[in-house]
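During the second half of the funding period, the structural biology subgroup turned its attention to how the target accommodates small molecules. The most pressing case was 6-O-phosphono-beta-D-glucopyranose, which had performed well in the primary screen but for which no bound structure existed. We therefore specified the complex as follows and requested a full 3D prediction, including the ligand pose.
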Amino acid sequence: MALEKPPEQDIVIIGATGDLARRKLLPALYNLFLRDLLCEGRIVGVARSEWTDADFRARALEAVREFGPLEFDDRVWQRFAERLTYVPAGEDIGRALGRTSAGRRLVYLAVPPSSFEAQVEALGGVGVDGGMSIIVEKPFGRDLASARALNAVLRRYFDESQVFRIDHYLGKETVQNILVLRFGNSIFERVWNRDAIDHVQLTIAEDIGIEGRGSFYEETGALRDIIQNHALQVLSLLAMEPPVAFNAEAIRDEKAKVFAALLPVLPGDVVRGQYSRAVIDGRDVAGYLDEPGVSATSTTETFAALRVEIDNWRWSGVPFYVRAGKRLPRRDTEISIAFRDVPKHFFEEMQCGDLPPNLLRIEIQPEESVKLSILAKVPGPEIEVKPVTMEFRYGDSFMGQPQEAYERLIYDALCGDHTLFARADAVERCWEVLQPVLDRLPAIRYYPAGTWGPKEADALIAPRQWYLH
Ligand code: BG6
């Protein structure tokens, strides 16, 4: 199905000189333009620096060359660059928000979370009308109270239909495929419940450290940076009931029911870790406390593992284990659905207990695949069984580069489609579920950079084990 261009509107990036704009937003907008999927209208950069249009264009060019698509086309770039303009924040913000002939504007708040509220108030000050919509980055607040306060400020000026709370995990192809896997195939639904599933695991592993974002990370940590948003969003897609229709409200209603059924996460359900200095492949890697912008006595977690329970008919008694961390051995985001053991062990290898159960593994990145492991008979006169894998890899089955998450999400917001964005009630509920642990943080455990986190994370899941290691 051919996509159409979104309706004409200006795109205003507040925080246009920052890292997010450089790494993600400007390359995504250029990509959309390249594919002829960008709306007509200006792209207005706003930030504190006293830049000119020419500075902004030069910076955008660098960004697109460094982080954009492989095919850079100078002529396309020239046409794209004509749309870019820059307004210093101190100047007339009203000018930045000037209307297109269609009167529509999409404002992207690409600023640090601590200034979201002030920015929304500033927009309110110059006048928000029905033609303006807004994208708010994560983390949306830093706890339940601040998320409620931010939602209240947004509600003062915007209708919920004008607000897009972005979580870029929802823009990933492999995350969206969870819904197609579950609701486009009939074979999974019958076993997608407590009768057949022993437990579910989600690992979001990164090998990088905090990449110069010390002051941001000190305010956030893994629980706020990854678990409250990316991890719980993925979990809701895994656990939700089939929606009544495949549209934004129906899907978001079902996700909300999963969040409503989540039991509060208590301190005893959580392991917090922080990476320490280590030598990896002969290279000396700094510990978190040595990173620039990090306090020498910081107890911010760079790793979190937790047990989550969904107290409803489908999932009661099935633990969901979630872990996320920086400076783990490799970049790998993966879901494992572990099915229950057979009721009777006929085969010798099974009696020893060291064969894995049937596992459905959904690899979100970097590999992008779905694998089902089953037991098979090894050819020969004896009955010998071994685990084997059936697999589907995106790269082998589909040609072409998948669309980048930000590209997809900006396109959807320009079209007014909320399906892949978080609703106010859901965001607040996710904070509410984590609030008990935020109020009483368990002690930090240390792990050497380049390992799979503190050993307490293994104890959390025992007698089961993490499949990714
Ligand atoms: C962001 C976090 O939301 O997601 C970063 O703030 C993290 O800390 C990033 O590195 C990971 O995104 P991805 O798409 O590389 O998994």
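Two results from this model are relevant to the next phase. The mean pLDDT is 94. Residues 214-239 form the longest helix (26 residues).
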